[in-house]
Amino acid sequence: MLVLGALNNSILLFLFIGLLLYVLWNLYNLNQLSNWLAKPSKHTPEVIGIWDEVYYQLYQLYQRQRKSRRKLTSILNKFQKSTQALPYATIILNALNEIEWFNPAASQMFNLHSKIDIGQRIDNLIRQPKFSRYLLKKDFSKPLKLLIGQKKVIFNITPYGSGQFLISARDITSLSQLDDMRRDFISNASHELRTPLTVMSGYIEILQHTADEKTEMPLDKIQQQIVRMNKIITELIELARLESSAAIDHTMKVDVKEILNDVYNEALSLDNGKHHIELVIDACEKQSSKLHGSYEELRMAFSNLLTNAIRYTPENGNIKLFCTVNESTISVGVEDSGLGINYEHIPRLTERFYRVDEGRSREQGGTGLGLAIVKHVLDRHNASLAIQSETGKGSTFRCDFPVSHQKQ
Ligand code: ADP
After folding, report:
1. Do 311 and 386 share a structural domain?
2. Pairing of strands 164-171, 151-160
3. How far is residue 103 from each of residues 90, 153, 156, 166, measured CA to CA in Å?
4. What is the C-alpha to C-alpha distance for residues 325 and 286, in angstroms, rounded to an integer?
5. What percent of the chain has pLDDT over 90?
6. Which of 75, 129, 291, 295 is most buried, by CB atoms within 10 Å?
7. Residue 346 sits in the same domain as residue 313
C-alpha cells in the first residue's frame, strides 16, 4: 500500500511539473508573440508546434492588411489630388451638416480655413435662409443658385455613405452674365423689330385698298408674313420675359376647372367645329383642385398644347383636354388622334424653333416656340412635361404638378 501511495504521489508530482513547464513555455511564447505583434516583421521567433502555425496565419493576415491599407492610402491620395485639382469647390459634410473636408477651391470661394472651419456647421458659414432651407429639405434633385457677395454660385449636393454629403459649388457669374446678355439682346432686337413691322403693315394695308389683280396676291402674301413675324416676335418677347422675370408667386391659387374651361372655350371658337373637342375635368371638380402659381402663364401653356393638337390633327379628329389627380400629382393634359410624332423627335420638341415638319408647322401658323414656352412655364411652376406619341395614331402632352408644391 505504502509503495503504491508513493508511486501515485510521484506520478502526480511529475504531472504537476510537466504541466507547470508547459504553462511556462506557453507564457514565454505569448510574451514573444506580444513583442512580435508590437512590431510585426518577416522574422518570426523560432517556435515549434501550434505556435508555428499561429505565427504563419498571423503573418499572412498582417500582410493582407498591409496590402489593403496601401491600396486605400493610394486611392485616398488620388482622390485628394483630383479633388484638389478640381476647379469646383468641393466640401464633404457629415450627417449633422458639419464640414469634414474641403478642397483649396472651396477654401478660396467660401474663405474656409481648415483649422477653424473643420467641424463647423456649413449653414453657420453660408448664412442664407435659402441655403438652410435647401439643406433641411434634403431634396437635391435640382441644383441651388445663390448670390454670395458679388458672385452667382450654383450648388450640387450628392448624398453618399452613411448620411454624408458631397457639395460641389461652381462660380457661374460670367456664364450668367453671358446668359443675361443673350436674353437682353433677343428681347431688345424683338422690340426694335416691332416698330418697322407696324409701319410696313400700315403701308401694306393702304396699298391693299388700291390693289389691282396683279398686286393683290403679292400684297396678301406680304401681309401674311408680317403677321407671322409679329407672332414670332411676340413669342420671343414672352420667352425672354419668362426667363428673366422674378419667381412666380406660389401663394396665388389657380382653380383647375376654371382655367381649363377658359382654355377649352377659347379653343372651340378658334377651331370652328373642325374637330371633336372634349373637356374631361370630373377628377378636378371633385377635389376642387388648385394649382399654385400664375393664372396667365398656365393658361398660355395649356392653350399652346390645345392649339398644337388642333394644328396637328386632321379635320374631324378627336381632341381631349383633361385633368387627373392622385395623391402625389395633379395633371393637366391634351390627347389627340392626330399625326403623332416619331420617338426620335420627342426629346427635342421643347427646344426653340425645333419642328418635326417645318413646312407643316409654317402652313398651320406655327412659330416653333410654343412648346419652349410650355416648358418654361412648367419649370417656373416646378412641374414637368410628359410626352407620349405614336406616328399616325396621335399624341398626349401631359403637365404634371407635384402635389407637395401645391401645398406650399
Ligand atoms: P409650332 O409652333 O411649330 O407648333 P411648337 O413648339 O408648339 O411649335 O411644337 C414643336 C413641334 O412639335 C411642332 O412643329 C410639331 O412638329 C410638333 N408637335 C407639337 N404638338 C404636336 C401634336 N399635338 N401632334 C403632332 N406634332 C406636334
Report:
1. yes
2. antiparallel
3. 6, 16, 15, 12
4. 10
5. 57
6. 291
7. yes
**Amino acid of residue 344:** E
Tell whether 126 is covered by a domain: yes
pLDDT tens-digit readout, 34-57: 888 888 887 888 878 888 888 888
Tally the domains of the chain: 3
For ligand 1, whether the C-beta of 368 sits within 6 Å is yes
Tell whether ligand 1 has an atom less than 6 A from the beta carbon of residue 336.
yes
Q: Do 166 and 190 fall into the same domain?
A: no
Q: Are residues 220 and 264 in the same domain?
A: no
Q: Is the CB of 339 under 6 A from ligand 1?
A: yes
Report the predicted TM-score, pTM, of the whole model to 2 decimal places. Answer: 0.71
Average pLDDT over residues 217-235: 93
Which of 139, 171, 203 corresponds to the end of one domain?
171
Three cell numbers, residue 260:
381649363
Same domain, 227 and 270: no
- Is any atom of ligand 1 closer than 6 Å to the C-beta of 51? no
38 alpha carbon – ligand 1 mean position (Å)? 76
Helix axes 213-244, 370-380, angle to 10 degrees: 20
By residue range, what is the domain housing residue 112? Answer: 86-171
Residue 298, pLDDT above cutoff 90: yes
Q: What is the DSSP string of 39-59?
A: S--S------THHHHHHHHHH
Please state at what angle helix 256-271 crosses helix 295-311, rounded to 10 degrees: 40
Strand partners, 321: 279, 334
Give the span between the Cα atoms of 284 and 322, in whole angstroms.
Answer: 9
Last residue of a domain, one of 138, 171, 204: 171
